């Protein structure tokens, strides 16, 4: 529901984005050159990094050289190193810088490299929900597809997936627009279980994979809508409490924009894929296919040296930013949400 989500106004469900934008603001220092500043910012995003180590001076100088390379020079160098040559110029720069930084840190036995991640697994979620072509301001979206795609951050592969359709309660009949957009038919939702039953199986699926107990994990979404709007509304409709394990997540649009230094207007799913040299696989607006394609973007970002981390959260029904200075932590062990009193 990528484009359709763009038209949803957050105030309809009384969720407000905090003014805090710590993770989106660079912190320039007049004492260092732009290349050194870039290396400093990248190093500060890593846990336990020490920018005073002389290796970061070498990395800063290398970054300056890479910044002056042409697109053809970047592609030739990447090919020489047997790295992916796809993507726009800025993406290739990031890839080459990440490779060099990782090699230098390994050589100096620094703790952790730029492609290391705090989480063992990242779970991608992209709901499909009931909708009209022109949603009225008071329209309550109900989740009709609950997909999850599991990424192993150590071998950088999609290792598992979950998908179930959901029977809507308030508006059981899907609009023609919704059927055409999502490919979800009336028969599919009529034969599905209500949301609370599907949520129980989601929790069981996460528990079986020992997420939050044996392994650290985080939820990842394409934008803020899935958790702050769709899940928030659905839990109220289904009279269950918002699940603890979904209260914090990685908004990949923010992560992508900050990492590749592009404006928010260039962070739609189709645009991110295009800029990374990837093509959409599957049917657009299928929740499972969208989740898989979002996962492909996340994998490419990890390969390019991005440390994906939680950057948004829900608190008292409001959407808030999580600053990059906040300590890293995984999602809690999943449990079935309690009923509302």
TrEMBL record:
GO biological process: regulatory ncRNA-mediated gene silencing; rRNA processing
EC number: 3.1.13.1
Subcellular location: Cytoplasm; Nucleus, Nucleolus
Annotated ranges, domain Exonuclease: 121-307
SUPFAM superfamilies linked to this entry: Ribonuclease H-like
Enzyme category, top tier: hydrolase
Superkingdom, taxonomy of origin: Eukaryota
Pfam family, any one: SAP
Keyword RNA-binding applies: yes
Cofactor: Mg(2+)
Biased composition (Low complexity): 35-46
SMART domains for this protein: EXOIII, SAP
One MF term in the entry's GO annotations: exoribonuclease II activity
Predominant localisation class: cytoplasm
Record-annotated SAP domain positions: 66-100
Protein name: 3'-5' exoribonuclease 1
This protein's encoding gene: LOC103364104
